[in-house]
Write a structure and sequence with these properties.
Blueprint: H1 7-27, H2 37-40, H3 58-66, H4 78-86, E1 97-98, E2 111-112, H5 121-143, H6 149-155, H7 162-173, H8 177-190
Antiparallel strand pairs: 1-2
């Protein structure tokens, strides 16, 4: 709720998410465990009830930001809630970033739901740390003056390779080299997986 109860933190998070999203999908599972196909790819089997269980929203979100339509309201996120509805970012909640509870007085939370299921407690712990670090970054950018200015500048560049972007991402999130290595190793092991090819057509923001 730290994220959803502070409009400035929420805005930072939503503006950063299109840049982060594809990397999060490539870092949210254990090494050599690419994200499941049904997460992103729509099923061609009409008999299947669920077609895409946790799809990206980066492309839609980036469009809102570029067009100046992203609105964050401090009063139960009423304006933001209307934008979420309009652009169907939360349709049936089947997105990697589930926003359906924003503005709900009983919950007012978001859900990260792109990771594969696992019984490995270390993987679960590392995933929680990844998501929490993204929220912590969004908070620190509000509460700390000039927080990681150079790292943020490097991360937001669009003229670098994806490998350079991944390094910039972990530099922005983590200070400990061991933590950085965990997520870079995850990324390196799955970045070439078939499911991530033509990523912009699957909903990830282009050139990010």
């Amino acid at each position: 709720k730290l994220l959803t109860e502070n409009p400035k933190i929420m805005r930072n998070f939503m503006e950063l998410w299109p840049d982060m999203e594809e990397l999060v999908y490539k870092m949210c599972n254990d090494k050599n465990d690419p994200i499941r196909q049904s997460t992103i790819i729509r099923s061609k089997n009409p008999l299947r009830e669920f077609k895409r269980m946790a799809g990206p929203i980066g492309k839609k979100l980036q469009k809102q930001i570029n067009e100046g339509k992203l609105k964050i309201s401090p009063k139960k996120y009423g304006k933001f809630r209307s934008v979420v509805d309009k652009f169907k970012l939360d349709r049936k909640r089947y997105n990697g970033l589930n926003l359906t509870n924003i503005g709900n007085p009983n919950k007012n939370t978001i859900e990260f739901r792109m990771a594969n299921g696992t019984l490995n407690p270390e993987v679960v712990k590392q995933n929680v740390y990844l998501y929490a670090s993204i929220i912590k970054l969004s908070r620190n950018l509000v509460q700390k003056e000039r927080y990681k200015t150079e790292e943020l500048k490097q991360f937001r560049r669009t003229d670098i390779t994806e490998d350079e972007k991944a390094k910039a991402f972990v530099d922005l999130l983590f200070d400990n080299e061991e933590d950085k290595k965990i997520f870079i190793d995850r990324y390196e092991s799955v970045k070439g997986a078939k499911i991530f090819r033509n990523a912009d057509k699957k909903g990830f923001a282009s050139n990010k």
